[in-house]
Amino acid sequence: MPASTEASTRVDAAFPASAAVDTRLTPGGPGYRRMSFALFLAGVATFALLYSTQALLPLISGEFGVAASEASWTVAAATGGLALFVLPMSAFSERFGRRTVMTASLAVAVTVGILVPFAPSLPALVALRAVQGAALAGLPASATAYLAEEVRPKALVTAIGLFVAGNSVGGMSGRVITGWVAQEWGWRVAVGVIGALAVACAVAFRLLLPAPRHFKPGSLKPGVLLGTVREHLADPLLRRLYAIGALFMTVFGGVYTVIGYRLTEAPFSLPQGIVGSIFLVYLVGTVSASTAGRLVGRLGRRGALYAAGGTTAAGLLLSLASSLPLVLLGLVLITGGFFAGHAVASSAVGKTATHGRAQASALYQSAYYIGSSAGSTVGALAFHAGGWTGTVGVGLLAVLGVVSITVLGTRAARAQQRLATA
């Protein structure tokens, strides 16, 4: 009998069903810190690998002689691969366990990461990045499902916020490190360094993550899985949350795919190392994601989404300035708003889904990374056609979509309250 099963049996014997002891993790309790740090490291590895080429796009364009819209496929292929495979990987997670799937996904992704620096051409690089993204698909949905099962509901927003904070640290460190390394030794060495960092995170993750105590294996039968997916897609609240995640990520993907081109061109003409350091603003996302629980406590979920959307829109407008300090302030607001909105929406998915949580989370992650791929591609095309103003225009339309969907949600909630009162 596995150790986790033995532990569960001992708990059941000591506390009869009538006692109903909640053995899920809670802040300050045993195992919570190890779990939080392990998933934080998984988030670091995921985002560092997933966006490892984003800050290097001008250098990749230069080596292969391609435009921004073509080089951006090294980002879009990775996020697109993740979006396509996150649902199938969630099915394996339901059958074989969250920790097993997350470990396997990281192992494959870091192996591909070691091969990426040796890509002989742009098509080969794009293909490797697509495989890497597909491998990483096992992380996001499995992580949120693991948290929903192993953490008490009152601590869920905070726990998911810490995982999202790991995403922000990974995204930041990956871009800052690649910027400075690439300035001295080129983009190939830079992505190799990120691969080595991800290997260290993957090993530490596997050693630290506690064995699941509340996982119950599900079915791999296609009919059962499709039925669960249909139920989730039929839920109006889940549909709204999926759309909100996609739209927030459209903004973020577009802005950070193109910002390197803008800052290396006139009037800023910044060197690659300085451009990479711009991504230190991700630290703002670390803070905003980890404090999303308190924001929801003060404003409610929809109020928090309004605040996140308004902050993101204000940042987009500020970034139009020709003053570098104002552009940086705009990036700070965009980053803070995005990560807060993402943490609120993703945690709401975990709370809303009462069964098939891995599939519910997978659908959110699929929509989220489809938004990233769309943002990277459309943002680059808009930049090619209309400069930074074009990219900002795409972002503002996406934020308008977030606000509109949240308004619909507010009206639906009020209508339900009126019906309940009547």
Account of the 3D structure:
With 422 residues, the protein is mainly alpha-helical. It has a single domain (25-208, 219-421), classed as Up-down Bundle (Growth Hormone, Chain: A), CATH 1.20.1250.20. It has 17 helices and no strands. Helix 5 runs antiparallel to helix 6 (98-115), helix 5 (73-96) crosses helix 17 and helix 9 (156-185) runs antiparallel to helix 14 (282-290). The longest helix is centred in the C-terminal third of the chain and has 65 residues, at 357-421. The termini are far apart. Keywords: Cell membrane, Membrane, Transmembrane, Transmembrane helix, Transport. Belongs to the major facilitator superfamily. This is MFS transporter. Residues 31-413 form the Major facilitator superfamily (MFS) profile domain. Pfam families: MFS_1 (PF07690).
**What is the overall shape?**
globular
| Continuous helix count | 17
Helix content: over 70%
Over the alpha carbons, how many angstroms does the gyration radius reach?
A: 21 Å
CATH class: Mainly Alpha
Number of domains: 1
Name the structural class: mainly alpha
> Can you say what the CATH homologous superfamily is?
MFS general substrate transporter like domains
H/E element string? HHHHHHHHHHHHHHHHH
Low-confidence stretches: 1-19
Determine the N-to-C terminus distance. Answer: 54 Å
Per DSSP, what share of the residues sits in E-state strands of 2 or more residues?
Answer: under 5%
- Quick check: average pLDDT? 85
CATH level 3 topology: Growth Hormone, Chain: A
**CATH architectural arrangement:** Up-down Bundle
DSSP E strands, number? 0
Largest sheet properties: none
